[in-house]
Write a structure and sequence with these properties.
Blueprint lengths: L14 H12 L2 E2 H8 L7 H11 L3 E6 L5 E6 L1 H7 L16 H28 L8 E8 L8 E12 L5 E10 L5 H16 L11 H6 L13 E6 L4 H17 L1 H7 L4 E5 H7 L7 E2 L13
Parallel strand pairs: 6-7, 7-8
Antiparallel strand pairs: 1-3, 2-3, 4-5, 5-6, 8-9
Helix pairs in contact: 1-3, 2-3, 5-10, 6-8, 6-9, 8-9
Pfam families: Replic_Relax (PF13814)
InterPro entries: Replic_Relax (IPR025855)
Protein name: Replication-relaxation family protein
Length: 303
Amino acid sequence: MSVPAVVQPDTADTYAHQALALIAQHRLLTSTQLHQMLMPHTPPRKVHNVLAPLRAEGLIAHTALGVRSGLKAHFLTAAGAQVVTNWPELRGRTASVIASPVAAAMRAAHTLTGVRAHLAFLAEARDRGDEYQALDWVPEVTHRLPDTGGEDRLIADAVLHYTAVRPRRLQYRAFVEIDRTTMSSERLARKLITYARFHDYTPQPAGRRGTVADQGAALFAWQRFYPRFPRILFVLTGAPRTTLTARIADLRRMTADHDLVTRLATHVPLGATILEDLEEAGPSSPVWTPLAGTGERRGWTQL
């Protein structure tokens, strides 16, 4: 008597599951961006078949990006945020609920610009066979700096986790700062000071001042999260090339003139690029200007 075959459950996530996880992590995504992340080798209309049931079930909503463009950016509703709570791929992240389409539209420019940078890394990783997936770009990562003076926290626009597999297997992490030329060049460059403070920050024992021996034995705050301090990448857009080039020069000047940042640059690769160059040539192309040293442009892993 033959034994009937045991039917095993499918272990692959559905496109609907993946789409909801991506919207939860990235806060806002256009249909085109979701298509590039989920199913780049299928007709673009396929992504609408994924999104329509999620919208019908009240798990996502959207905001229009301009009257004439026809573009829409999708975001989680409160019901959608409840569904993704405790999903393994989102562990440690709190799903962000945007209150309304108007609120979504107001934050769309910065959020979606960051996704453009992420997609440049994603496209290149697929071409090279490297390990970098759509959830390996983590937006809005916060680290506390409560007892160092000045700002009490560092908020990185994103942290990316990338594994190159050839010619040998290497893991890279990077803090990414997105600059749309909406703040002064000086304020942008001051972010380097905050990163330098985080690099040197050792939390003091609660209730007492640490001795020299305590401080020598204590971990730096960043070592609780990263095996090596992530490199720092600035991605600039939103102005003529001459303006963006001048802002990169200001970042280099801050690196040379501020003692904390100069010391940071001896341990951590620092670089800046223009978003449109990144999208056109890819992150491994010589589009990154190092913020220390000669300034000769190179790929992001060569900084």
